[in-house]
Design brief:
The protein is of the alpha/beta class. Helix content is 43%, strand content 14%. The chain has 2 domains: 2-244, Aldolase class I (TIM Barrel); 254-327. The strands form 2 sheets. It has an 8-stranded parallel sheet. The protein is globular, with a radius of gyration of 20 Å.
């Protein structure tokens, strides 16, 4: 699959953009584990234009994680075009527009998935961003605002006409948020449209290697994007890639997976500071399947998620690794 001049190979798997998740360290680890492409956290156009430090830091891209897309969001064409030019200076391979974020603080203000209620403005923003930069522009969006307005097949054509180089479709409406099941039949309808010539990337509920294989074989997408299943489990890309390549499963050991989580912790602390770095990584620790299903683990889990120093957290992880995980 190609996005403009960016060659992602056969049946690529991308790491989805996720706020407070896809920082530079996590993206690089996922790339090393087999992700074919990574996306930054959401970058607010308005905050970028105002040079808010927390936003400009999101633009940092490590050479080893490429190809990487910077994803921007906003609600007006002018600021989005200006933010696109600023993001372009950071050297991404691709610029992605977020028309899919469903959370109230974004969609409720007319950005992200909120633009699914104002298609003319969505298209105006898309044209403005495409015209503003000299790299491929892509879009990530949803099926529609709600069940009665699933407009994605027609919308995909309209976005293509604006000049985008690829489209990622999350198989839910904005009203669904992250509930229910992703509708991959609708994603397949987008791909099957003979008037659509750009690559279609499918997103939603891809948690296992078998589901990723099915996404390609049954629904015919050009690429897939994996989000929540990777939180606390960057090794999912390795398992999925092996399945797509027809290789036998060879899961990492508990020790190897623990080493990856420890690396995330240390790099988070180095990037921010000890206290905030640990706060940032708690989402990964809470979601990691490494700790799922361990008998009588509740109290240890609470202690792990309450630890606020690196020394305390390392001591708990040592206990888990040496006294608990080998018994699994």
């Amino acid at each position: 699959m190609r996005i403009g001049d960016v060659d992602l190979g056969d049946r690529p798997i991308a790491l989805a953009p996720m706020e407070d998740v896809t920082d530079a360290s996590f993206r690089l680890i996922c790339k090393e584990m087999g992700a074919d492409m990574t996306y930054t956290e959401f970058v607010s156009a308005d905050a970028l234009i105002r040079n808010i430090a927390a936003t400009t830091r999101k633009l940092t891209i490590a050479p080893g994680e490429r190809p990487t897309a910077i994803q921007i969001y906003g609600r007006e064409p002018g600021p989005m075009a200006e933010a696109a030019r600023m993001a372009r200076e950071a050297g991404p391979d691709i610029l992605d527009i977020n028309f899919g974020c469903p959370v109230k603080k974004v969609a409720g203000k007319g950005a992200g998935a909120g633009l699914l209620r104002d298609i003319p403005k969505m298209l105006e923003i898309t044209r403005a961003v495409v015209d503003a930069v000299d790299i491929p522009v892509t879009v990530k969006t949803r099926l529609g605002w709600d069940h009665d307005s699933r407009i994605i097949v027609t919308l995909a054509e309209q976005l293509q006409d604006c000049g985008i180089a690829a489209l990622t479709v999350h198989g839910r409406t904005r009203s669904q948020l992250y509930t229910g099941r992703a509708d991959w039949e609708m994603i397949a309808r987008v791909k099957e449209n003979p008037r659509l010539h750009i690559p279609v990337i499918g997103n939603g509920d891809l948690c296992t290697p078998a589901q990723v294989v099915e996404a390609f074989d049954r629904y015919g997408v050009d690429g897939v994007m994996v989000g929540r299943a990777s939180i606390g489990a960057p090794w999912v890309f390795r398992d999925m890639r092996r399945a797509l390549d027809g290789l036998e499963p060879a899961p990492l050991t508990a020790t190897e997976r623990m080493a990856l989580l420890r690396r995330q912790i240390h790099e988070s602390v180095e990037r921010i500071d000890e206290y905030r770095g640990i706060l940032h990584i708690r989402r990964h620790l809470a979601a990691s399947p490494l700790f799922k299903g361990i008998p009588d683990f509740r109290q240890t889990r609470i202690e792990m998620l309450r630890a606020d120093t690196l020394e305390a957290l390392e001591a708990i992880l040592d206990h888990i690794e040496h006294d608990i995980l080998p018994a699994q």
